[in-house]
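request received
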Amino acid sequence: MAEPEAIIALDRIFKARSVAVVGASADPAKLGFMTLDSIVKGGFEGPVFPVNPKAREILGLKAYPSLKAIPKPVDLAVIIVPARFVPAVIREAGQAGIPGAVVLTAGFREAGRADLEDELAAAARTGRVRFVGPNVQGINYLPNKLCAMFFPVITARGPLTVITQSGSATAGLSEWAVREGLGVNAAVNLGNQADLTDSDYLDYFAADQTTGVIALYLEGVCQGRRFLKSALAAAAVKPVVVLKSGRSAAGRQAAASHTGALAGRHQVFAAACRQVGLEVAEDLTSLFDRAKGLAAIKPPKGNRLLSISTSGGMGGLAADEAEAEGLSLPPLPEEYRQSLKAESLSPLSNLSNPLDLGYVKVEAFGRAALLADRHEAADVILLNLGDPVPGAVEAALELGRSLKASLAVSYLGGGEEEERARFALNRAGLAAFPSPERALRGIGAAVRAADFKRRRGGERPALADWTPPTPGRGGSTRLLTEPEAAALIGDFGLGYPEHRLARTAGEAAAISAELGCPVVLKIVSPAAAHKTEIGGVMAGVATPEEARSGFETLTGRLRNHRPGAELAGVLVCRQAEEGLEVIVGGTLDPVFGPVVMFGLGGVQAEALADVAFRVAPLERTDAEEMIREIKGFPLLSGWRGRPPADLEALAGVVRAVSRLMTERDDILELDLNPVRVYAHGALPLDARIVTAGK
Amino acid sequence: MAEPEAIIALDRIFKARSVAVVGASADPAKLGFMTLDSIVKGGFEGPVFPVNPKAREILGLKAYPSLKAIPKPVDLAVIIVPARFVPAVIREAGQAGIPGAVVLTAGFREAGRADLEDELAAAARTGRVRFVGPNVQGINYLPNKLCAMFFPVITARGPLTVITQSGSATAGLSEWAVREGLGVNAAVNLGNQADLTDSDYLDYFAADQTTGVIALYLEGVCQGRRFLKSALAAAAVKPVVVLKSGRSAAGRQAAASHTGALAGRHQVFAAACRQVGLEVAEDLTSLFDRAKGLAAIKPPKGNRLLSISTSGGMGGLAADEAEAEGLSLPPLPEEYRQSLKAESLSPLSNLSNPLDLGYVKVEAFGRAALLADRHEAADVILLNLGDPVPGAVEAALELGRSLKASLAVSYLGGGEEEERARFALNRAGLAAFPSPERALRGIGAAVRAADFKRRRGGERPALADWTPPTPGRGGSTRLLTEPEAAALIGDFGLGYPEHRLARTAGEAAAISAELGCPVVLKIVSPAAAHKTEIGGVMAGVATPEEARSGFETLTGRLRNHRPGAELAGVLVCRQAEEGLEVIVGGTLDPVFGPVVMFGLGGVQAEALADVAFRVAPLERTDAEEMIREIKGFPLLSGWRGRPPADLEALAGVVRAVSRLMTERDDILELDLNPVRVYAHGALPLDARIVTAGK
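response:
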């Protein structure tokens, strides 16, 4: 959970009442100048102390030769001296009793100087100095007018807090927020995170009163599970959007098992974030639009959208994007249509959803929206403006105050009128976007966040209380035999076709008679990890006599393919009934630890990688959601007249795998492939489990 | 092909030397004022004649009571009178010898007054007046400074020509082009297209010297095949991007056959556009970005991208998006790396691709790009700026002149410096984007367009010479029996398992002996359109004796399920070898006529709708491309050690279906499901064909 010390430290950093800039320079080309200049231009109201042994005054401020020489208390040291001097400066800060620092200087771990970074961190620990960085653009905390960042100087306040691993993303997102009228609450650049980390910032800004929404740009996380806990706690109190780069690297990692090969880290990251209630963005523009929607659209009560437009085109584009965002555009209630007709709108109007008012004045928008609200036609209303609409700002703000439904604005093709209005609306806290598709990304985010809160309410996923074990997972691994694997999943409540191990052909015949034919014969040998590849499986064995000869055939194939291989025997299994096949698997993600995978069985599903992931342990809702998430889900829900699959039983299998992966920390990989799903029940037909150890 | 008369008419409209505005008004709230005002503000240099019987002068221009009263020649009548007066005005224009008109007035077909629109069209034909509209925002042709559009007034010239079915899209795209520095060549709003249509505009602007790129926003097309011909001809001489709304309506149409059900019109539209070399955009922002890339990025020689950045983050985001756009980021050639090292870059640099220069001055960007060019490291270089970079404009323009590789700029997080620079670069004809992902959409478009030209060069898809027949396709339809269907596809060169029709059980036994067992038995009856649903197929029939009893079983099932059904017999087919199954189908798209579908066989592929479409007739390249287009293609190309499928044979089946759909205009639906594809050869195992007529 949150580390109170880190939160207190960050509070002292962001709310510092006095700041020293070590490495301040009078040369406008230097970062030491730019940063001091930003602090001054940002309007910081406390004392600012440039530290530079060679200067007497910089930017009209008295300079000091060292931190110690400053005669007044300093809350925050902003450091921009060359890397090799930074540890000494931190040491001095500790000695001077300065509690916090922002180390802008680069040239540490990222430049091959991990030693210098370790020295810096050690000096900070000794001196009890908590710090941001090193290798950062800086911080900007607008409630304190503290812009300790060499670029850009942002002073327009708003709800957006930006936490990023890229200075350019910090600057870009902040500037977009200013240009669009949204405004910024805080911006912080993560840098090397030698002390304070992603999770600390998330904890801090979750509690920060003036933060309305948190936008994260990440290239990775320091500790997967801690990040999820912080994200879960943050998302419970305010919206969080995340963009992670590295999508294109996904799927490159080689892995032994089927499940492992599909566990591209990026997909797991996105799934984990959604699992704790974060909104996941696909690119920077979408990160910004989704953050704006989350900051400035009242939490929608559902996913029903009404687009009100003067432009059929804009309405159509909104509808297209709405589908992609999982929103519905329900038909207009008949009473609403009737009341609209009574309004004597333009003859060019089209009374459907999207609603096209034809060419009208702003008042018609207002009436159409208010009537929609009265008839409960939608949970979210999009004012989809596609021409200059004088008076749009006042009308939209008035609607924002009076509507029960949530409201957002798209404004396009309205010239300077449009630019002014968009800015004014965002400034006033009503989300306005420059195109229908961008509006829909913001609306989609708002709908999903509200939906998550409704569904998950007070419920806190168990993963928040789960601590990853640290077993000695390096070194040797072992593939369980099939009977061992079947027994293990049996311990976790999963069924398996009735089976016994035959050590001789005679035993195979006897067991098959006992179980009742048809049976399936499967070779059991540590040398046959992938049984089918050596023809080690024989299905539809119809008589004990066939079982006897089948035993000889399979053991013969093993001898052919793997001469001298150890033979444990042949597993005789009662043949299960036909049914739809799915895969349920578990693997260890390098960042988040145990994860569970679900997908349809068969080579096509594998080739199309139509699979869903969740971080274990899964709650019931997680299991249900991941089953519904795959594109092939319709096959499970009564495809072309087939009986629907028993989704509850299937969710039970998924959750059993989750428990297994969580409770048994020696499991490296697990594949139940296939699991047959019936109208009643679900049954694993094969189990492949790799454990750590010999 | 292009209609010369329409092109000449449009030339006279866009290049009109004198304009009358019928319905000009002195009331600033009226469109009749706004349009006249736009013409004046647009800087039109010829005479402008307001026509309004109640006014003597409007906006300082002498007003006339009617078109006939104008004492000088008029080239173009811009009409904004109420709909009921429009036919009379057009009649008058014809009498006055005015060759062209733009009818802004709405209230025709779109408002239920098709009669009035027909009257208008007839009057125009009689008077030999060609016209734009009705129901349009207007036209803007900047080379003639003719802004006959009630909104917006755009005067910043550039390469972009916008043709849209939405006034808001026209205005929005034009304004974006102006704000970003790209500039506009022409904008035209399609409206109801009662005379001049989408294809006419496409033909005209393809030939228009000052158009650099055409951006289309469509909600449909007037004539599918003519549109494709115009698009093909246009794309051969200049880039064209298209956005079509209605994606979310796709797949809603019910259809009898499997292929029909998957032929969502939107997917067919996108496939058809790509087939003729158009770039397809997914939303308005992407339409704009792709158009910008096509206008202002030199045609790339290949798809190898190098991103040069000072920001690891921006590089990573560019790489993510590059993959989505089908670009590769190859590793840096070793000699290039060495030469970069010799440049003594920042110690923070990361010499891979994306290339991160650390924090450097603009000169380093230039050197890195020039060295990349010398070592032929990439086909496209993205200057991926993520901080204020003074001098970036001059440096980028110089690179644009000297590089062999194509060049584009992403500029983000650079404050006012960035905004100015992006504008200046676009103004100077070098594509500059506000984020890496948006840059990649432009680059992706440029790469695909250049690739299409290279691959298709002078080759003109046969579909340009194909004229859709107009058979009496309404009314009754007929399902061919399987032997008939097999014979028909045989006429087009396709194989089928050897088969004979058995009319008795004895014949079934005899035929199976003759063909050689195992055989497959299939019921043949007009009452069993879907054989498997009534258990009408029996595979693996091992002996003539089994065939004899199988005949009785199948005919029994038919009697059970369809009492009294006519029985043609039982088809005895030699059983084909196992193999991967695919579907090849044909259907009639309501817009484009015969189209061909390809996908993997099986219920999963169907549920995931992983299929590709092409408009028939297909060339070899089309067939090859559509096979490679499906997500499941890896299954055909040697999945997990299997032998690769015979793609040439498969392409042959696809093209045979294309010929069949093209040459036989009575075929409504055709499904070859499955087609087995082997390492050598491909064989349809079932054929279902529905024809028009009894």
